[in-house]
């Protein structure tokens, strides 16, 4: 029985990276985010890094 439970790793590196990345997204100022919003934001961030989404800079609305 000990072999069955001790053979399973407690966590994996990918999970640790995910928690670390979510810590940067969920600051005290953004603590009211729902779980779905955090998940979506993290997915979009990864998609942008992978080149799957194109980011278009916002136009400046300042009048000269």
Automatic annotation (TrEMBL):
Residues 1-48 form the HAT C-terminal dimerisation domain. Pfam families: Dimer_Tnp_hAT. This is HAT C-terminal dimerisation domain-containing protein. It comes from the Eukaryota. GO terms for molecular function: protein dimerization activity.
């Amino acid at each position: 029985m000990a072999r069955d439970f001790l053979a399973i790793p407690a966590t994996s590196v990918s999970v640790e990276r995910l928690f670390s990345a979510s810590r940067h997204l969920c600051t005290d100022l953004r603590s009211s985010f729902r779980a779905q919003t955090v998940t979506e934001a993290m997915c979009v961030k990864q998609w942008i890094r992978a080149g799957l989404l194109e980011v278009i800079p916002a136009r400046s609305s300042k009048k000269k």
